[in-house]
């Protein structure tokens, strides 16, 4: 989006209220970081205008949803459209408390923060939002591993979810899943943040790599992502600690033909978004997941051309932003 387009859209970050909350989890000493953005003139809090987000298996909600590319993040965009947007970091991610085992060497403990924990933390965040805004339900957005967390939550709590939007959620796979590099899993892994660019661009055709991530965007994203790493030594080396519970669950569920939850048990309307060049959740997996959503009151698939697994942070990001906003805004009921 160009500077002129930003101006013509009327977007102004000074119109947005940004609040931070630290919410008690179900574990003593563990607090969950929840960011909230809304317009300053947003005074009436309604379920259909409230969104709660959760991140994927490696990067936090701030890293995925709140980097201000060209001065505007995904959360900013939704807030400007009139939504009250909350995004939680599961324990061990972003600005939430790290489990004490993450201070030790990774080979001293088993994989941390399994999907069960993610669902529990997400439920805690949603309950916090419901109390804060005096609501009975909310809209939900998530991507990748977060899609499993949010999908499982929606299946188990149909009364608390108005609509569900998922970008590239996990599903069963009979081939290796790229995020799982194989070998023994410690409690966490060290992710070289600056090395992510080569892998990111490498998932797109060669002819499109130069325009996939506009100039300056990766550096901005990397700086924000590393700023949330509490270990100064890791931060200075450009590394991020990411828990391995989600990777273990790839082996326990998605590569073992044993789904963590049943998508057909989701009752809310569902929007599934997928990037054309996503190798982490290939087209056939996304299609198979979509076919499982037989219990949804209605379901919709949107394929984003020339986009990878990280479509929210690429040159085609406005397609994703707009489709998500439109889905949550619409008052559509099947006949």
TrEMBL record:
<protein>
    <submittedName>
        <fullName>Pimeloyl-ACP methyl ester carboxylesterase</fullName>
    </submittedName>
</protein>
<dbReference type="Pfam" id="PF00561">
    <property type="entry name" value="Abhydrolase_1"/>
</dbReference>
<dbReference type="InterPro" id="IPR029058">
    <property type="entry name" value="AB_hydrolase_fold"/>
</dbReference>
<feature type="domain" description="AB hydrolase-1">
    <location>
        <begin position="50"/>
        <end position="314"/>
    </location>
</feature>
<dbReference type="GO" id="GO:0016787">
    <property type="term" value="F:hydrolase activity"/>
</dbReference>
<keyword id="KW-0378">Hydrolase</keyword>
<dbReference type="InterPro" id="IPR000073">
    <property type="entry name" value="AB_hydrolase_1"/>
</dbReference>
<dbReference type="InterPro" id="IPR050266">
    <property type="entry name" value="AB_hydrolase_sf"/>
</dbReference>
<dbReference type="GO" id="GO:0016020">
    <property type="term" value="C:membrane"/>
</dbReference>
């Amino acid at each position: 989006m160009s500077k002129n387009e930003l101006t013509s859209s009327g977007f102004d970050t000074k119109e947005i209220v940004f609040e931070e909350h630290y919410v008690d989890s179900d574990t003593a000493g563990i607090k969950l970081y929840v960011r909230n953005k809304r317009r300053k003139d947003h005074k009436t809090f309604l379920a259909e205008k409230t969104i709660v987000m959760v991140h994927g298996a490696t990067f936090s909600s701030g890293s995925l949803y709140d980097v201000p590319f060209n001065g505007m993040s995904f959360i900013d965009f939704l807030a400007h459209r009139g939504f009250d947007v909350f995004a939680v970091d599961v324990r061990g991610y972003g600005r939430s408390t790290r489990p004490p085992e993450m201070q030790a060497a990774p080979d001293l403990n088993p994989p941390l923060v399994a999907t069960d924990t993610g669902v529990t933390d997400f439920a805690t965040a949603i309950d916090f939002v419901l109390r804060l805004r005096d609501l009975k339900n909310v809209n939900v957005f998530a991507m990748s591993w977060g899609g499993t967390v949010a999908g499982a939550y929606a299946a188990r709590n149909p009364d608390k979810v108005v609509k569900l939007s998922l970008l590239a959620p996990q599903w069963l796979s009979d081939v290796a899943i790229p995020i799982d590099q194989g070998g023994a899993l410690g409690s966490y892994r060290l992710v070289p943040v600056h090395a992510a660019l080569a892998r990111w661009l490498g998932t797109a055709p060669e002819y499109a790599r130069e325009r996939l991530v506009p100039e300056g965007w990766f550096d901005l994203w990397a700086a924000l992502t590393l700023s949330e790493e509490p270990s100064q030594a890791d931060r200075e080396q450009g590394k991020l600690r990411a828990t391995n519970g989600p990777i273990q669950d790839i082996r326990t569920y998605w590569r073992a033909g044993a789904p963590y939850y049943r998508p057909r048990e989701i009752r809310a309307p569902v929007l599934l978004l997928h990037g054309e060049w996503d190798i982490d959740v290939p087209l056939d997996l996304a299609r198979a997941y979509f076919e499982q959503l037989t219990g949804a009151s209605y379901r919709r698939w949107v394929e984003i051309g020339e986009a990878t697994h990280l479509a929210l942070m690429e040159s085609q990001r406005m397609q994703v932003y707009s489709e998500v906003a439109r889905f949550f805004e619409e008052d559509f009921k099947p006949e």
